[in-house]
Each structure stands twice: as C-alpha cells, then as structure tokens.
Amino acid sequence: MSIGKAEVVRRKAIKIMPHPGEFNLPALHRAPGARLLLRAPPSPSLMRRMIDQFLGAFVLAFLPLFVAIDALGIIPIYIGLTEDMDERGRRRVARQAVLTAFAGSIAFTAGGSWILRAIGVTLADFKIAGGIVLLVLSVLDLVTLEKERRKPLPSVGIVPLGMPLLAGPAVLTTLLIQIDAHGPLATVTALTANMAIAWTVLRFAGWIHRMVGAEGARAASKIFGVILAAFGVMMIRVGVAEILAESGRG
To answer: What is the pLDDT of residue 79?
Structure first.
C-alpha cells in the first residue's frame, strides 16, 4: 500500500532531527518537500516524539539551573535587604530582581557562544573551565556559614539580588553548558520556569522563612551546593574526554 507524499517528508524530517530539545527549523525548511510538511498536519507519532524529546531535554536543563540559582539560599539576604520596606516595596524588589536576572541571563546566552568562538575557545575548553568554576563556587558556598550579605543599595533588586545572587557566574556557566547539551529552546524554557519559581520564592519569602527557619534554608542551600559540585566535576570529566577523543582522531 502506497503512502502519501506528506508522510514520506515526515519520515525524512525525523532523520534530520537534531539532539533532543533542539528542533532545527532551518534544516526542515531546506528539506525536500518542506513546504508540504509545514502545511500538512503532523502525524500523532511525530508529535509524541517531538514532545517527549522536548520534555526530556527540558528536565535535564531545568535541574542544574534550579540548583545553580538556589533561590532558597538567598531568602535570608532578601529579607535583610527589604526589612524596612512595606509589602508593596518588597514585591517591587522581587519583580526587579527576577527581571534583571532573566534579562542578564538571556543577554549572556545570546552573546556568550559568539564571544567564545571569536576568541578561539572550544566547547570542550569551556566545559572544563566552567566545571572548575562551578566546583570552586560550590565548595566556597559549602565552607562558608552563609551567603555574603551586602549593604542595601537604592536598587537592591538589580544589585545584588538580580545579579550576581540570582544570576551569578554559576548560573551563566550552567546556561552555556546546557545550551550545548540540550539546545536553546529547552534551556531558555527551563530558565524561564526557574525564574518563575525564584519570583514565587521571593514573593513568599517571609512565609517560607517562618516555615523552614534560617537553619532549614541554610541546609537546603548546602545540599544544592553538593549537587552543583558534582555537576561541575561531571563537566570537567566530559570536557577532558572530548579533548582526548579529538586528539585521538587527530
């Protein structure tokens, strides 16, 4: 039994799909019969496969970012910086912090890869360097009693809450690594979800602080630090393995 032309194009599209989480629309447009594919309704099996790929990549990008952002860990700092503000002022600072962190992360994501290529740094090099940064930052966080407190500034939502506390070196490094591993769509979606969680945590920081207490927030932060250290070690291992494999092929 013959199959329709649209189905043939769909099967070709599956073969050119990139790694999970990154849907290469330019490649689809260049594929033979692409206009027919884009006009025709997608088959249920292709839709399920695309959704499964995206969800898997989203989860894998979400978890390292969640650990790196560590919104629970900055609750004591947020409360200390906003203790003299009314409820409206606290909401403004929380919104300001999340928007600053999100905008800074997106800007770094857009320009980070281009900068690396311009200076001749490979992704394997960046994985090793980024893994070392994550490892050092997480170890420093583990051995200190609490995150650094800074004197209040007129715009505490931008500095220090937005950057570098919510979107610091660990988050920016993790972003570039996740984009390489899982694609920009899944990574940016995971970043957006994490920033929504961060806003919720800051919005209800007083209630969370009363429920878990200062020690509970500090314990959660330390657990995240251990996970982030393990992620840094993994990235160093992956980067070294890629360089050795490249050397072996050369």
So the answer is: 86
